[in-house]
C-alpha cells in the first residue's frame, strides 16, 4: 500500500482514489496523522450545524464527566440515529461502509477488515479533560473528527500527542476545529491527552470518536 503513495517529505501524499489528498503521518513514537481533508468542509459544517444536544449519557474517568451519544455500535448504525439530521444519518451509513474502513486504513497503512467499528458523538463542557493514556489494548485505530467551527488555544481542550505518560512531554498540540481529524494507531507508546476545557468557555468541545477494535471486545 505504501508504494502507491508518494511521500513529499512533509508527510503529504499525492491524491489517490482511496486516500485523502493530503496527510501527515508520523511514525515516532507511534503512528498518528492529522488530516485536514478526510471529510469535506461541507460535510463537517453540516455535522457541526446539526450536532444534537439530546440523547447523551455521561462518560469518562475524571471528576468532570463529558457526554457521549452512540452513532455506530458493533459496526451497525444505532436505531436512535433516526432522530438525527440527514447529515448525521448519512455519516452513520458512511462509517459502516467498506469505503470508510478502507480509506481510514489507507491513511495509516493498516488493514481494518474484520475489526468492529464504534462511533460516538462527544461533548466536553468546561472542566472536562482526558489524562494521558494509550487507549485500551483492544483498540486498534482511532479516528477523532473535530466539529468546532471556532476554537481557541486558550480555551484548552487541545489534543496533546505525547512522547510519554507526562502531559508536558508534548510532541504536538492539535486545535479541535473542523475540518481537522486525527488518526491514531494504538500501541504501548500511543500516549495522548486532552487538556481541560477552560472554565468560562461558553462553547462545548464537540467531536466524533470512531474506534476500530478487535471483535472479541465491547
Ligand atoms: O477528543 C480527542 O481529541 C481525543 C479523544 C481520546 O483520546 C479518547 O477518547 O480516547
Ligand atoms: Fe484516547
TrEMBL record:
Q: Region Disordered: what ranges?
A: 1-20
Cofactor(s) recorded for this entry are: L-ascorbate
Q: Which UniProt keywords apply?
A: Dioxygenase, Iron, Metal-binding, Oxidoreductase, Vitamin C
Q: Basic and acidic residues composition bias: which ranges?
A: 1-10
Q: Which residues form a coiled coil?
A: none
Q: Which residues form the Fe2OG dioxygenase domain?
A: 111-217
- Which PANTHER family does this one have? HISTONE ACETYLTRANSFERASE COMPLEX, PROLYL 3-HYDROXYLASE OGFOD1
The name this protein goes by in its record: Fe2OG dioxygenase domain-containing protein
Amino acid at each position: 500500500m505504501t508504494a502507491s503513495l508518494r511521500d513529499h517529505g512533509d508527510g503529504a501524499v499525492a491524491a489517490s482514489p482511496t486516500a485523502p489528498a493530503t496527510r501527515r503521518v508520523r511514525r515516532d513514537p507511534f503512528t498518528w496523522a492529522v488530516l485536514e481533508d478526510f471529510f469535506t468542509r461541507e460535510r463537517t459544517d453540516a455535522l457541526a450545524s446539526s450536532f444534537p444536544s439530546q440523547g447523551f449519557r455521561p462518560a469518562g474517568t475524571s471528576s468532570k464527566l463529558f457526554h457521549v451519544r452512540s452513532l455506530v455500535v458493533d459496526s451497525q448504525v444505532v436505531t436512535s440515529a433516526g432522530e438525527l439530521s440527514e447529515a448525521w444519518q448519512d455519516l452513520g451509513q458512511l462509517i459502516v461502509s467498506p469505503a470508510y474502513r478502507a480509506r481510514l486504513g489507507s491513511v495509516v497503512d493498516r488493514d481494518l477488515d474484520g475489526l468492529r467499528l464504534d462511533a460516538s458523538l462527544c461533548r466536553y463542557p468546561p472542566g472536562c479533560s482526558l489524562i494521558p493514556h494509550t487507549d485500551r489494548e483492544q483498540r486498534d485505530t482511532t479516528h477523532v473528527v473535530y466539529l468546532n467551527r471556532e476554537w481557541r488555544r486558550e480555551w484548552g481542550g487541545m489534543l496533546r500527542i505525547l512522547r510519554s505518560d507526562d502531559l508536558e512531554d508534548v510532541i504536538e498540540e492539535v486545535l479541535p476545529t473542523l475540518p481537522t481529524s486525527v488518526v491514531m494507531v494504538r500501541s504501548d507508546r500511543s500516549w495522548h491527552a486532552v487538556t481541560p476545557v477552560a472554565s468560562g468557555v461558553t462553547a462545548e468541545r464537540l467531536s466524533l470518536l470512531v474506534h476500530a477494535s478487535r471483535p472479541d471486545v465491547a
